[in-house]
Design a protein that fits this description.
The complex is a heterodimer of chains A (about 280) and B (about 290). Chain A is mainly alpha-helical and about 280 residues long. In chain A, about 75% of the residues lie in helices and about 0% in strands. In chain B, a hairpin with a 3-residue loop joins strand 1 and strand 2. Classes of the chains: A mainly alpha (about 280), B mainly alpha (about 290).
C-alpha cells in the first residue's frame, strides 16, 4: 500500500499524521535555517582562527574551538577504557543473574541522570574532593562520566553483532577467552564501537550544564596550556554571549557564528559516525 | 608466551572487566550518596517541613521547594502536551505510513534533531520563539513558561519518536496482516491493533521523553525568564529546579546553607527522574514479554 491509496481510504487520520511529521520537520528546518542564514555570514577564517578581541565584541572563537576539542579528547580518554571494559564484561562474561540485572539497571539510570547533576557530582568529586580545581581536566572527567552509559550501551550492541561461531572457533583452537576477545571479537566490532563512541562524544561536546561549574570560563587569555587551567568551550561561549554579555545586541552576530560552528562540529562527528556505519554494513554484505 | 602466563592473564582480565562492570553501580551509588550527604547537612540547618511547605525560594532566608517544583512541573506538562501528540503521530507516520524514500529521509532528520545541542535550542528560544510569543500575545517579552515548554518539547521529541517507533515497528506483521485480511483499513488497523499492541512501549517513550524534559537545564535556563515568583500560568516567567542550580551554584560560597540547599534540590530532581525512568523501564519490559 502506498500513501496515496491509504490517504484515499481514510483521509483525516492520514492528514493528521502527515501534519505532525511536517511540524516536527519544521522545527528542524527552523533551527538550521535560523542559525545558518545568520551564522554563516559571521563565519570567516579570522572568526575561526582568531582570539576574541575588545571584550568579546570582535575577533574570533579559536580558544573556544580548541577548548571544546581538547575537552572532548579528555572525555574520550576518561570514558573509553572503562566503557569498553564494562561492555565486554556485560557481553562476554556476565551471566544472566541478579547482579548483572543490577548493573544493567544502574547503567540505564545513569543515562537518565540529568546533566546538571553530573555537573554537581563533578564539582563535589573532581573540583573539591580530588582537588583538581575548576579545570579542563575536571570538566573532561565529568563529561566522561556522563558519556559512560551511552558508550557502554552502544559498545555492547556492537560486540553482540559478532557471530558466536567466531568466538567458538577461536576457543576451539585453544585461545583463552581473553585472547578471543582481544584478537577476534574486538577487531570485528571496531566499526560498530567507533560509531557509538563518536555519537556519544558528539553529545558530550555540545553539553553545557556539566561544565558550568567544573571549569568553563567566559574568557581565558591564550589557548589552553595545561590540564589544570580553566578553558573556553563553544557551548558555554554561546550561552554567555546570548545571556550574560553586557552588550548583547552587539555580539548577536558572533553568537550566531558560534552556534553555526557548534552545530557544524556536532554534525561532522555524526556524519563520520554515519559513514563508518555504512561502510561496515557494506562489508558485511 | 607460556601457557601458565596466558591463563593467568586471562584470569586477570576477567577480574578487570568485572571491576569495570561494578564501577557503574559504584558511580550511580556515589552520585546518590553525594547528594544525600549534602542534603542531610542542609536538613540539619533547615527543617525538612519548611523545605517542602515554604512557598518562597529566596536563598538569604527562604528555602522553599514549591515554586521551583511547580515551575518544573508546569513547563514539563506544557512540553508533554505538545510533544506527546506530535511525537506519537510522527512515529506512526514513519513506521506505518511513510515508505521508501520518505522514510529514508525522516529517520536521519529525527537523528539530526536529537543531535542539536540544548544550548543551541535555548538560543533559538531567545532569538525566534521569544519575539514570536511576545508579538502573538502582545506581551512585553516572550521569556516565559510557554517558551520553555515549546523548547522542551523539541528536546523531548526525538526520544519519544525513536522509542515509540521501535515499539510500533515491533508489532508483528502477521497480526497486522490478519487485520487487513478481515477487510480493515490502514487506520482501523493502526487504531485497533497496532496502538493497543504497542501501548506499553509508547508509554515508555512518553516517560523517557518526560525524564529528558524534567532534567533539561540549558533551554529553560535561557528561555524562561528565571523569575523567582510563584508561577501563575504559561505566560509567567518561571525558574525550574535545574535552572536554579545552574544559576546559583556558580556564586554560592562553599558549604553554606545555601550551598547544601542546592544539593537538596538536586536530590529531589534525581529522585523524580529516577522514578520516571524506572516506570518507563517497567513499561518497556512489558512489551518485551508480550513478544
Amino acid at each position: 500500500m502506498n500513501f496515496k491509496t491509504i490517504f484515499k481510504e481514510n483521509p483525516l487520520p492520514a492528514t493528521m499524521l502527515l501534519l505532525c511529521t511536517l511540524l516536527v520537520c519544521t522545527f528542524l528546518f527552523l533551527i538550521l535555517g535560523e542559525i545558518f542564514s545568520k551564522g554563516l555570514s559571521a563565519l570567516s577564517w579570522s572568526f575561526i582562527f582568531d582570539a576574541p578581541k575588545n571584550g568579546m565584541t570582535e575577533g574570533g572563537i579559536l580558544p573556544a574551538i580548541v577548548g571544546t576539542l581538547l575537552l572532548t579528547l579528555i572525555t574520550t580518554l576518561a570514558s573509553l577504557p572503562i566503557g569498553i571494559a564494562c561492555a565486554i564484561y556485560l557481553s562476554e562474561y556476565a551471566e544472566n543473574n541478579t547482579t548483572t540485572q543490577i548493573i544493567r539497571a544502574a547503567i540505564r539510570n545513569l543515562a537518565g541522570v540529568p546533566s546538571i547533576i553530573y555537573g554537581l557530582f563533578g564539582l563535589a568529586l573532581f573540583v573539591q574532593g580530588l582537588q583538581l580545581g575548576t579545570s579542563i581536566l575536571s570538566a573532561g572527567l565529568t563529561l566522561g562520566l556522563l558519556s559512560l552509559p551511552y558508550i557502554i550501551t552502544t559498545t555492547e550492541e556492537a560486540l553482540k553483532t559478532v557471530p558466536q561461531s567466531m568466538r567458538e572457533g577461536a576457543l576451539a583452537l585453544g585461545a583463552t577467552q581473553f585472547e578471543t576477545i582481544r584478537d577476534i571479537v574486538l577487531p570485528a566490532s571496531i566499526p560498530g564501537i567507533a560509531t557509538g563512541v563518536i555519537l556519544s562524544l558528539s553529545r558530550a561536546a555540545g553539553e553545557t550544564a556539566p561544565i558550568l561549574f567544573t571549569g568553563a570560563a567566559f574568557y581565558v587569555t591564550g589557548l589552553p596550556g595545561n590540564l589544570f587551567q580553566e578553558f573556553m568551550a563553544l557551548p558555554y561561549h554561546l550561552y554567555m554571549l546570548t545571556t550574560q554579555h553586557q552588550s548583547i545586541a552587539t555580539v548577536r552576530p558572533l553568537a550566531y557564528g558560534t552556534a553555526a560552528v557548534l552545530i557544524l562540529l556536532v554534525f561532522m562527528l555524526n556524519i563520520v559516525a554515519f559513514m563508518i556505519r555504512n561502510k561496515f554494513r557494506n562489508q558485511l554484505k | 608466551m607460556n601457557n601458565r602466563l596466558r591463563v593467568r592473564m586471562d584470569k586477570a582480565f576477567k577480574v578487570v572487566f568485572r571491576i569495570a562492570g561494578f564501577a557503574c553501580i559504584a558511580i550511580l551509588v556515589s552520585i546518590f550518596m553525594m547528594l544525600l550527604y549534602n542534603t542531610v547537612a542542609f536538613f540539619s540547618q533547615i527543617k525538612p517541613l519548611d523545605f517542602i511547605t515554604d512557598t518562597q525560594w529566596n536563598p538569604s532566608r527562604h528555602f522553599g521547594l514549591l515554586p521551583l517544583l511547580a515551575s518544573t512541573l508546569l513547563v514539563t506538562l506544557g512540553a508533554m502536551a505538545i510533544a506527546i501528540p506530535l511525537g506519537i503521530g510522527t512515529a506512526l507516520f514513519i513506521s506505518e505510513y511513510a515508505t521508501g524514500f520518505v522514510k529514508n529521509i525522516l529517520k536521519p532528520a529525527v537523528e539530526m534533531l536529537s543531535a542539536i545541542p540544548s544550548v543551541v535550542i535555548g538560543f533559538l528560544g531567545i532569538v525566534v520563539i521569544s519575539p514570536g510569543i511576545s508579538n502573538l500575545f502582545g506581551l512585553s517579552n516572550g521569556l516565559n513558561a510557554l517558551n520553555g515548554a515549546i523548547l522542551l518539547a523539541i528536546m523531548a521529541l526525538p526520544t519519544i519518536i525513536t522509542v515509540a517507533e521501535d515499539a510500533i515497528h515491533a508489532v508483528p506483521m502477521t497480526v497486522k496482516e490478519a487485520s487487513y485480511g478481515l477487510g480493515a483499513t490502514k487506520w482501523a488497523t493502526v487504531k485497533n491493533i497496532v496502538l493497543p499492541a504497542a501501548y506499553p512501549g509508547i508509554i515508555a517513550a512518553i516517560m523517557l521523553g518526560m525524564g529528558r524534559a524534567i532534567g533539561e537545564t540549558m533551554t529553560v535556563l535561557m528561555a524562561t525568564g528565571n523569575s523567582l515568583a510563584f508561577p501563575t500560568g504559561f505566560f509567567s516567567s518561571i525558574r525550574t529546579i535545574t535552572a536554579t542550580i545552574a544559576i546559583e551554584m556558580g556564586e554560592v560560597p562553599f558549604q553554606t546553607t545555601h550551598y547544601y540547599g542546592l544539593f537538596a534540590l538536586a536530590l529531589i530532581l534525581f529522585l523524580i527522574t529516577m522514578a520516571v525512568n524506572v516506570l518507563a523501564e517497567r513499561m518497556a519490559n512489558r512489551i518485551r514479554k508480550f513478544q
